[in-house]
Design brief:
Largest sheet: 7 strands, antiparallel
Number of helices: 41
Distance between the termini: 63 Å
Structural class: alpha/beta
Shape: globular
Strand order of the largest sheet: 15-12-14-13-17-18-16
């Protein structure tokens, strides 16, 4: 341990709620049993085996209400790894569960033995046939697959609300469908082929011309078993009719028995059976999908009705008119969505009885678009709508911003309601379907059932397909509450099956909470055939036992997770995982969800337990140190949970009083710090990178890796100490040169003006001159202290920058232009909690504008491109996403470049000020996918809008990233 490394005990909760009944026992404090760990390390290598208690606990929770702690976690990199683990499980009589995004809602991604992570190394999209098909690896999120396909005017058919986070493998394994897929655009209908690994370890590519011959040779009993099942099913006409009727509705409960009716060979049957198999029949290693048209022309409305029954009655009218999507939200859902970013605040006042339909028509061309407008207007004229609050318009719209808000609210259903649930309660998401014509009746029956059992549930769903979701909250730590939930489930399942002949799981798949009710829906004959399917493919029962088939009538009540109260900023988290794809440390240590999951486990423990000690030992590095602190998780979370803020608070918690005072002194003397760093950079220019790297590495080992930066070759030369001269009298804005641009020059080897010189010149050229104050030295946006949790230093600098900005801008008369996006965010938003009352008043009068926004709105209309760039690749920073000005970055780039690319995996680079120098492994992990995209092509310009992010991207790609405004100045220089 280095001299100044933080003490793990400083992160110990001041008071826990343990010992909880579902806490991890002390005998598991050492993690994976030695023998199991050693076996798997020998088989796969140490870096593919996660074994500490922290590793196991962070994988124990998913988006479901269940929690099972695995014995070990394997990070599989290829099909050979998967096959090897499967063979090991056979030999050692062990069980395996596959996990990708962990967004499944019924516990499919949890297991008690070997859990295999198949997300991290399983991404990638290959576009085929001009976009009509796509080869997609299973760890790719649906959202990222669609970004790629949208460039060809295509999309995937399945469109679940969790598309930004859920993976294609999980979508296929659960046959998740979503808003528009119904029963015609889901995975079962659109999956052309797949590569799978059977429980035996046999690998099958269903598209191979000789696939059936190979399978017969490798698995003769399996082939015979599948053909025997096919013959038996086809010979039972009553059963065939039942199967066809069940799949006329959305249905993901049990195995796809229609695979035996729709296919003729064992390989084709396997392809069908794998859809909706929930990881119990094999591993889906690759998919080939038929895609659907993007249909860019949309006509959308959010229509409000007096109650759920009235809304449901309108659904057939829109279905008949050709609407692509008809989504329903009840009053509880609408009220909860008032906490969602962009949603009108007055939704919180919507009466509980109110309901709304989100209706969307989509067209490929103008003729169809006009027909949709007429059809929508005709239906609208027949409806008796209400306007319960002022923001309600009940009109069809076509502007993208409003439409995004509507869909954002609908997609936030689960998280928004989860945030509003009582503290400490567990959230259950149910999903069923009835014939669409009986939707109104089903809504009434569901409401009556909820009232009778004392649940005030929220309801939303895909009304066009008769598919409803509802959320129940109860305290899983209280037996009486669990009993109430059990009684409700018994009656609910009876109602859906006997009254409506509906589907108990329309799109979320059976999972642990519906296995006891499978036979009630399908009957004994069909259920027994499903058991035989499992026996045929997985005779040893090693894959996800109990997830689809379970003879325990109380299986849905086992493993329900308690939700201990944690820090207020993160306590509303329902562990959905929407935050994970944007987290810089997702492939290095932990994600925001996992940081919360680990903290909750600490709260389950008694204060001095061995398990608590083990968790604390790992939490400092795994959770706190390797959090970029960029709060990208907040932008991805539908209700804005900021786990980065919690980690910064933990950094503050680890500081001693002396450390806080020293940080404040640095803030007070920041002018000296600036000049000293520039001097050091100048000296470093005369010393080799290798020497500097060795020296800083040695110091880090002695002092602390979280205090001493490590030298990297991408660190540039010092900026020019003299800023360009400007005239206060003619300026239309004040230009604040961020400290990073006062300290660091542009990329080495790139000639031309400095960033301040470029902004001054291009603003003058556009007739919008700016002024740089002469007393800028020693000021900063305070992000340096804020990101590290130094509250005292943060307070000093936050108040200093506001006081100076107030003077520079003549009391807010002129806008303040800031040339680094993180500094714009810092000055514009993040300083406010640390300001005095007087400075908060001054801050409210300031207009803080990012330099990219300044360029896009004030400069471009007055500039002419004289030397365009052929191609450019952009890195939008995380701060720009917070500021919502990524579109302006793209607008500036497209103004000067003929071809502009934004990588599919462009997310936070993890450099985070100096975090990438303290933990360069964070930036390497955060940018791995983006860097691969960037380096696979050749571009004339590599552009961003924050100097430290540019340094981080240059470090990982070897490409000279620079500000887009440098490129703007160069491209618009007069020709004479």
């Amino acid at each position: 341990m280095a001299l100044l490394d933080p003490e793990p005990g400083k992160l110990r909760p001041r008071q826990t709620q343990g010992p909880a009944t579902d806490r991890v026992p002390d005998e598991r404090a050492s993690g994976t049993p030695d023998a199991l760990r050693e076996d798997l390390v020998r088989l796969l290598g140490s870096r593919k085996v996660l074994h500490t208690l922290s590793d196991l606990v962070k994988y124990a929770s998913d988006a479901s209400p269940y929690r099972f702690v695995p014995q070990v976690v394997v990070i599989a990199e290829n099909v050979e790894d998967v096959a090897a683990v499967l063979r090991y499980a056979h030999e050692q009589h062990r069980e395996i569960v596959f996990r990708a995004a962990g967004t499944s809602l019924n516990g499919q991604a949890q297991g008690k033995d070997i859990l295999v992570d198949v997300r991290r190394h399983w991404t990638g999209v290959e576009v085929l046939d001009g976009g009509n098909e796509a080869r997609i690896r299973p760890g790719t999120t649906v959202g990222r697959a669609n970004i790629t396909l949208s460039r060809y005017g295509r999309l995937m058919g399945p469109d679940p609300a969790s598309s930004s986070a859920c993976t294609v493998g999980g979508v296929v394994a659960n046959n998740a469908s979503g808003m528009t897929a119904g029963v015609t655009r889901n995975s079962y209908r659109l999956l052309s082929s797949l590569t799978l690994v059977l429980p035996s370890g046999t690998i099958v590519d269903t598209a191979a011309p000789d696939a059936d011959a190979r399978l017969r040779e490798a698995e003769p009993e399996l082939c015979a078993g599948l053909l025997a099942l096919k013959s038996e099913i086809e010979g039972d006409t009553e059963l065939v009719a039942r199967i066809r009727a069940k799949y006329a509705l959305k249905n993901t409960n049990g195995y796809r028995l229609d695979a035996f009716l729709d296919n003729s060979t064992p390989v084709e049957i396997l392809r069908g059976l794998m859809v909706g198999s929930q990881g119990t029949l094999g591993f889906i290693a690759e998919t080939v999908f038929k895609t659907v048209s993007l249909d860019r022309l949309t006509h959308t409305a959010l229509l409000f009705f007096p109650d759920l029954t009235a809304a449901a009655a309108a659904v057939p009218l829109f279905n008949d008119a050709g609407a692509r999507a008809v989504e329903v939200m009840d009053g509880n859902t609408l009220r909860a969505c008032a906490s969602v970013d962009g949603v009108p605040a007055d939704w919180a006042e919507i009466p509980r009885d109110t309901a709304a339909l989100l209706v969307e028509f989509r067209a490929p061309d103008e003729a169809a678009h006009q027909a949709h407008r007429q059809a929508a207007a005709a239906v609208l004229a027949k409806l008796a709508l209400v306007a319960p609050v002022a923001s309600v318009t009940n009109r069809f719209v076509e502007d993208s911003a409003t439409i995004r808000t509507y869909w954002h609210a609908r997609e936030a259903f689960m998280t928004a309601v989860g945030k509003a649930r009582p503290a400490g309660s567990t959230l259950i998401t149910e999903d069923f379907a009835v014939p669409p014509a009986r939707l109104a009746e089903a809504c009434e029956a569901l409401a009556e059932l909820q009232r009778r059992h004392g649940f005030d549930a929220a309801v939303a769903g895909h009304a066009a397909h008769g598919n409803l979701h509802f959320l129940l909250a109860f305290d899983a730590a209280r037996p009486k509450e669990v009993e109430r939930y059990a009684d409700f489930m018994d009656e609910f399942c009876t109602m859906v099956v006997r009254r409506f002949d509906g589907s108990l799981k329309a799109e979320h798949a059976t999972g642990r909470n519906m296995t006891p009710f499978l036979e009630a829906e399908w009957g004994a004959r069909a259920t027994e055939l499903m058991w035989r399917v499992k026996q045929t493919l997985d005779p040893a029962g090693i894959l996800a036992p109990g997830v689809v088939l379970n003879r325990d009538p109380d299986a849905h009540l086992q493993g329900l997770k308690t939700i201990p109260t944690i820090e207020a900023v993160a306590d509303p988290c329902i562990e959905c995982g929407f935050c994970e794809p944007v987290c810089p440390s997702r492939d290095l240590t932990t994600t925001p969800r996992q940081r919360i999951v680990l903290r909750r486990e600490m709260m389950r423990q008694p204060g001095g337990s061995a398990a608590m000690g083990s968790l604390l030992k790992s939490y400092g590095y795994d959770a706190v140190d390797t959090c970029a602190g960029d709060s990208a998780c907040k932008t991805a979370c539908p209700v804005g949970i900021d786990t980065g803020a919690m980690m910064k608070a933990f950094r503050h918690q680890r500081h001693s009083g002396r450390e806080e005072r020293n940080a404040a002194r640095v803030a007070e003397r920041f002018s000296l710090v600036e000049s000293s760093v520039r001097t050091a950079l100048g000296l470093a220019d005369h010393v080799g990178d290798r020497v500097l790297g060795s020296v800083t590495s040695a110091v880090r080992k002695v002092v602390s890796a979280d205090l001493v930066p490590e030298w990297i070759s991408a660190i540039p030369s010092p900026a020019r100490s003299r800023l360009p001269g400007t005239d206060h009298r003619t300026a239309v804005a004040v230009y604040y040169v961020a400290c990073v641009n006062r300290i660091f020059a542009g990329p080495d080897g790139v000639d031309g003006p400095s960033l301040p010189e470029a902004i001054v010149e291009v603003s003058r050229r556009a007739g919008r001159p700016v002024w740089i104050p002469s007393d800028m030295a020693g000021s900063c946006c305070a992000t340096i202290w804020h990101s590290k949790g130094y509250d005292d230093g943060n307070t000093v600098m936050a108040n200093r920058i506001v006081e100076r900005a107030w003077e520079w801008t003549d009391g807010g008369r002129l806008p303040l232009i800031v040339d680094a996006s993180s500094c714009t965010l810092g000055i514009g938003q993040e300083v406010t909690p640390y300001l005095t009352a007087e400075n908060l008043r001054k801050h409210r009068a300031l207009t803080v504008v990012d330099s990219v926004v300044w360029a896009a709105t004030e400069l471009l209309p007055h500039l002419e491109v004289t030397d365009p760039i052929d191609s450019a690749v952009l890195h939008p920073t995380c701060s720009m996403r917070h500021l919502k000005d990524v579109d302006q970055l793209q607008a500036v780039a497209e103004f000067i470049a003929r071809d502009v690319q934004v990588p599919v995996y462009a997310e936070c680079c993890g450099f985070a000020g100096d975090r990438g120098l303290l933990h360069k492994e964070l930036t390497k992990a955060a940018t791995a996918h983006e860097a691969a995209e960037v380096t696979s092509g050749a571009f004339d310009a590599y552009l961003s809008a924050n100097r430290t992010c540019e340094i981080g991207m240059q470090h990982t790609t070897g490409r000279p990233y620079q500000s887009v405004l440098l490129a703007l100045e160069r491209a618009t220089r007069p020709t004479s």
